[in-house]
Amino acid sequence: MKNFINKKKRIVSLLLAGMVATTAMGCGTKSQDTPAQSETNTEDAKAPAGESGQGSADSGERVPIRWLTTGDAAAEVIKDGDRIVEEINNRLGIDLTVEVVPEGNTEKVNVAMASGDFPDVVTGDYGTSATQQWIDDGMVIALNDYMDANPDMKAWLESYEWSATDGNYFGIPFITQYNAANSLIIMRQDWLDNLGMSYPETLDDMKAVLEAFTFNDPDGNGQNDTYGYSAEKISSANSTPFDWVFFGHGLKYADYALDANDNVIPWFEDPCFIPSMEYIKGLWDSGVIDPELMLNDTPKKEEKFYQGKIGAMPGALFRHVTRHESSVRELNPDASIGYGHAPKGESGTYGLSKQGKGGKMTCITTACKNPAKAAEFMNFMVSEEGNNLLRLGIEGIHYTKNGDEIVFNEEERAKDAFSPDGWAHALAWGSFYWPLESNYIPPTDPNKDRIQETVELATDSQVKNLINTRTATEIEKASVVDDVFVQYFNDMIQGKISIEEGAQKLSEDWRSQGGEEILEAVNAAYHGN
Amino acid sequence: MRAKVKSQHPVKHSMGSRIFDAINITLLVLLAIVAFYPFWDCLVVSVSSLKGYLSTNVHLWPSEWSFEGYSYMLKNVDLWISYANSLFITVVGTLINMLITIMAAYVLSKKDLKGHRVLMFLAVFTMMFSGGIIPTYIVVKDLHLMNSLWSMILPSAVNTYNLIVLRNFFADLPAELEEAALLDGCTDVGVLFKIMLPISKPAVTTVTLFYAVDHWNDFFSAIMYINSRTKWPLQLFLRSMLFENDAAYSGGGESLFLLGQPMKMAAVMMAIIPIMCAYPFFQRYFSKGITSGAVKG
């Protein structure tokens, strides 16, 4: 028996040793990689040092810069030896390592920063509690000392003067849809033509068109199987499927409204709210709105439009113009799309998209050993020189000039991380620009004029914010008060509560569930500004 | 003669029993259809043209066949790299999982092991209070596993739930088998691998399947620890094709918005078919294994 117990002990010892050995073996396998080797393999974007032509700095003198960014996750892969990264290294005397987070997942960036894994340069979401914490906890440095030496960065920051904290700029902000927009109400132009109608210019016209789309058999199939309008379900007070109605009825700002005493109030306390809701309810009750609107996401909404079930939808255009038109022609080869300004109200006001408040912010971390070089790199990324390099490439390699005409060498561009058909390098978008904000369309794009026309129309229909930034209180309370708004908005449209009563209760509940604190913060921001 | 009649009609069902059976069968068939239809819809859409997809909302059969989605996916070199990464993670990861889990579960199933309650408490403690994202990230970083496929294997080398399932199964096995083997001259390791494991197939197979499916479906670890696209597992690669980034969509970035639903569904099918093929091989052990270790705490 004693022998048996001893054997048991040996089993235990042996198996536990096996576990430890197995675990150690697993770690040991990786430990053969030094951190440096591991980094070389990791991103893709590390160029071989000192391998390039003009003005090549000696690799020993190069300043290593590690940039962690959400970037444009769907762009081409940046491979070792990418000539654009190499060119940046040569021009700036740096050794750039770019780490683009999969799926542009901001949480990864936040976790890396929270765990102390600081890169030299980091891009995260602007106007979130996480990036605010970077500033509050001293994880990122102020850029003020480096502005004079970097004029493009300085000009950029000064154009976002309101983004400074106590006069200090802690990062280069990039607000999406700040000065440009791409959304319009897209309609079936062939339906309008069949009905002898034109694209609606006023709210009354819009109502007439939507009714005709619903009841006058616009597709001529002899069936009552179409609806006038659909959109995405409402997800917050900042984006409803009927923003154009509120702006048409005179709502002045995208985010808030002002009362008679110049105090900031929620936009749904503006006098235009009730007549706007009555207009929307009228559309809903008359049956011209897709009854599944409350369930739609973007793909579902677009699918219904392509299937010919709805005649109008608010949608992104810009690079999507061709896609919408070709998709709608899959089932109806003669179909076409139309778009125009948002419909005007009686007083002539109109609007559709709201100016953006969110976006990205690129900062230099406290771990950066050479912040001057990091600032120079950021300056390059927002400079004309940098933009040309990332969008066009290197002259003579990626493109040539024939007078003023740019001729792309797609074969050479494909060797580096350029997207096809004249679109830009993988580093061009996501951190400092999107094509929309930079008004970039490849000079060779045959659809260029039409694409630009949609941006002009959409930007003209964009409504500005009263307050540029989101306050910390807004960020904290947003989800609760948004839920209150969504609930009442849906109930009012569906007739579960009258519009007058709903508007009053919405206001009371919104204020009591965090809205008062939000108003206190935004009033301070507004009057402070 | 009577016996023969009895064998032809062993049980006489009452009308109530028949109605009950009919309702049961009907409900279960409906339930099966509800469970199966999403998969079928996905399969049908994946082999339909965009026109065929748009022409109807209920996809029972492709109205216009097209394998463009599969063709697009199969030509994509990154897909095959991701497949290879996922296979490596699943095979190597599951082997490591099973090796450690089996050894730990066997040891912990021995009641005469000193401190086995403390060891079990420590294991169970991790079920209730996990380290969380940031501490795990720090551990992975400090072990220099960042941007390595091992970061998707080693941090999850043992799953406590699976450890308990196996431990309970081992604890239920007759101790006499082990004593007999030792008396016959079998070594300690031999007892585990030659005696205990062969009679534990249901539990071992079930736990293996749990681990393999977890590895195959894991994408969050890849998001956290892996940047290089050459090391993306299949799930991350396919997610990047399916999920549209709002900012990229509206800002005109290099998103994959041009992919239609058939192409996206082809991507989904390519992700789930390989692991689905594994199920039939584990099926006969599965139901037995899932319950066998569960009754003893």
Characterize the structure shown.
The complex is a heterodimer of chains A (529) and B (297). With 529 residues, chain A is α/β, with parallel strands linked by helices. Chain A folds into two domains: 169 residues, D-Maltodextrin-Binding Protein, domain 2 (3-Layer(aba) Sandwich); 235 residues, D-Maltodextrin-Binding Protein, domain 2, CATH 3.40.190. Chain A is 43% helix and 12% strand. In chain A, a hairpin with a 2-residue loop joins strand 12 and strand 13. Chain A starts with a helix and ends with a helix. The relative contact order of chain A is 0.14. Chain B starts with a helix and ends in a 5-residue tail after the last helix. In chain B, helix 9 packs across helix 10. Chain B has 297 residues and is mainly alpha-helical. Chain B has two domains: 65 residues, no CATH class; 224 residues, MetI-like fold. Chain B is globular, with a radius of gyration of 25 Å. At the A-B interface, helix 1, helix 2, helix 4, helix 11 and helix 16 of A face helix 3, helix 5, helix 7, helix 10 and helix 12 of B.
